[in-house]
Design goal:
This protein has 654 residues and is an alpha/beta fold. It is built from 21 helices and 24 strands.
């Protein structure tokens, strides 16, 4: 440790901080600003916002607690962390709701102002836990507790601006942010610039928030309550330009990039729904890139507009969550029948029905695969991290445009609202997507009376490589055609009720989706030793927890392999061969075993599910125990020995 102005400076390799308070306490803003400061400093980071579904949840109650967790480090990390090292609790409910997640020795910074008899009762406390600190009955004896009157000091710091106590106390989140920024050496310029811009039109509020932020920093610098300042150095990263990005923002940018790379105008038809609405909000800002957005009156109208845009030669996109996919299912089937490009983004959330709108889940996979009437196969793509949402969006557009098909993109609430550093790609490195519009008639007719060559346009003749039908912009001379939801005759596309033709068309549409596998790169199997007998396979946002769990198992001295799927329909060509190489296959999912079911049915593999549906990401430590148990079975090792080795292995690489 070094000594600086009477304070100790301690080096750490990573820290997990959780800000928690009422929905109106600004915890999401506080966490986001701390995240932006850490991103500007150069740390690797992963975040986990967690908030109620209600716009204004009951104040002071456990259901009304909003939190924001940020994990930042001087090395590559994969998750927002299983358990916070530091909890900032703004009231009794925030303390009680999060106490069970804290490991022994964790630090708690708690605002004492709201620990009144009324608020304690709302949170379910019979007595004030802060009143017994250091006593024999101390309920918080396992933790380092810093009881600080954050609200009172905030009100005192901003009294010069003449605000009411209620308005002045609203800046307490900035006081807390200033204190934590001092504790962990975060740069302050980005937050001050943010506050100046955000409250530019309200000078008193702007100045009060900036003053509270600086007061929190100065309190940390001068008080004897906090005697240690921590330093987490920047993480080494490949050379490039980085920014912090959420999954929804990355999806929006990916759609814009896909439109530019394909030369197609984009029409987003969307009905607002948590947690997908931010994509609509962001895309509405990008008219300069040929993006049009329509906030439709309902989910069905949104997808109908998108299909109409694709028929007209644009790229139709619709965004929603699980309940909206259910409503759009018939229209998606229409896009399957008409074989038009369409990108359907499902930002999954807890269900069924309205379910848990602000919580995460992976339970729409089977709906995406089978949730339409008839044989209506749809390709499925799933991003693995917030930044990867950008690439997944471009891939969805590539498949939709190249193969003339609707494509499902399965994100989820964890990816949508979470964030990570993202290396901004070079435009020249992005794939070029060719719409290859039909411009000429394609079908030979019998010669005319004078023997002249004659042609017309058949909208269901197919490309030999992709089985895609031609895409003709309405109004192109000589390419007039009609399409609709009734079965098409192969080639000519006229309505057909012929049984043999229907069987042929059903098989052809399936073969077209299967043909996509020919364009997919080989799967990357992470098996460094080559001696693993257990394979962990996942999809979507489980990538981080699986990777962190695998790291723990390897660090404990055991072999395990990992593979992660981006394409869920069709599966990559080499997946079957990979699955056959391992004795045990574990499939962690935030559902009751949907990918497990598909793998069992397709490859006859004894896939073992690791399933939790809690509305929260999987925890790396618990997952590592499950992986370790399978390793013990596969290699004949005593389970107790594996457990002991995992328990004593540091988890600093999560």
């Amino acid at each position: 440790m070094a000594v600086q102005q009477g304070k100790q400076v301690k080096q750490l390799d990573r820290v997990i901080i959780r800000f928690a308070g009422d929905s109106g306490d600004g915890m999401q803003l506080t966490g986001d600003r701390f995240t932006q400061e850490s991103a500007a400093f150069g740390n690797d980071l992963v975040t986990l916002p967690n908030f109620p579904a209600e716009i204004r949840a009951p104040q002071g109650t456990l259901p009304g607690v909003s939190s924001f967790q940020v994990h930042f480090a001087d090395h590559d990390i994969l998750t927002a962390g299983d358990a916070p090292d530091v909890l900032v609790a703004m009231n009794p409910a925030a303390l009680k709701a999060n106490l069970g997640d804290l490991p022994k020795g964790a630090a708690i910074i708690v605002d004492t102002a709201d620990f009144t008899t009324r608020n304690l009762a709302k949170a379910g406390y019979d007595a004030n836990p802060l009143a017994t600190l250091g006593d024999a009955n101390d309920q918080l004896a396992d933790f380092q507790v810093f009881a600080v009157d954050l609200t009172g000091m905030t009100v005192e710091a901003v009294k010069q601006f003449g605000l009411s106590r209620k308005d002045a106390s609203r800046a307490k989140n900035m006081f807390a942010l200033g204190l934590l920024s001092w504790m962990y050496g975060r740069p302050t310029e980005t937050t001050i610039a943010f506050l100046e811009k955000r409250f530019a039109k309200v000078a008193d509020i702007r100045d009060a928030n900036i003053t509270a932020f600086k007061a929190g920093w100065n309190f940390g610098e001068t008080t004897e309550t906090f005697v240690v300042q921590y330093e987490v150095k920047p993480a080494p990263m490949p050379t490039g330009t980085y920014r912090n990005i959420t999954g929804n923002l990355a999806l929006a940018y990916g759609l814009v990039a896909g439109g530019v790379q394909s030369g197609l105008p984009i029409l987003l038809g969307s009905y607002p729904i948590t947690p997908a609405s931010d994509i609509l909000h962001e895309l509405s800002k990008h008219k300069a890139f040929g993006v049009s957005t329509v906030q439709a009156e309902d989910e069905i109208a949104g997808v109908g507009m998108a299909i109409g845009a694709s028929f007209a030669g644009q790229l139709g996109v619709t965004t929603t969550s699980g309940p909206g996919i259910a409503l759009k299912s018939e229209a998606i089937g229409l896009a399957v029948m008409t074989e038009l490009p369409l990108v359907v983004i499902d930002v999954q959330r807890g269900g069924p029905s309205t379910g848990l709108p602000t919580k995460t889940e992976q339970a729409d996979l089977l709906q995406a695969m089978f949730g339409r009437n008839g044989e209506a196969p749809v390709p499925i793509v799933a991003p693995q991290s917030p930044g990867d949402c950008f690439d997944a969006a471009i891939e969805a557009i590539r498949i939709a445009v190249t193969y003339r098909t609707p494509v499902m993109l399965l994100s989820d609430g964890y990816l949508a609202n979470g964030s990570e550093p993202w290396k901004i790609p070079l435009v020249e490195d992005l794939p070029v997507i060719d719409p290859n519009f039909a411009t000429q008639p394609n079908h030979d007719l019998p010669p005319g009376p004078d023997g002249e060559e004659r042609k017309d346009f058949w909208p269901y003749l197919r490309d030999e490589d992709t089985l895609a039908r031609p895409w003709a912009i309405p109004g192109t001379a000589g390419l007039e055609h009609r399409i609709g939801g009734l079965e098409k005759g192969e080639g000519h596309g006229n309505i057909s009720y012929d049984p043999a033709n229907h069987d042929l068309m059903v098989r052809t549409r399936q073969a077209k989706v299967d043909r996509i596998a020919e364009s997919l790169p080989p799967l990357v199997v992470d098996d460094p030793s080559g001696a693993a007998r257990v394979l962990v396979i996942g999809w979507g946002s489980t990538y981080g927890p699986i990777g962190a769990g695998v790291r723990r198992v390897r660090k404990a001295g055991f072999n395990v392999a990992q593979v992660h799927l981006r394409h869920l329909n069709p599966f990559p060509k080499d997946l079957g061969d990979i699955l056959e190489r391992y004795d045990k296959v574990l499939v962690p999912e935030m559902n009751l075993g949907q990918l497990s079911l598909l793998l069992r049915g397709r490859y006859l593999v004894d896939a073992i599910g690791y399933n939790q549906v809690r509305g929260l990401p999987l925890k790396a430590a618990e997952l590592a125990e499950a992986i370790g148990g399978l390793v013990a079975q596969a290699e004949g090792i005593a389970p107790d020995q594996v457990h002991a080795d995992l328990t004593t292995t540091p988890a600093e690489e999560d």
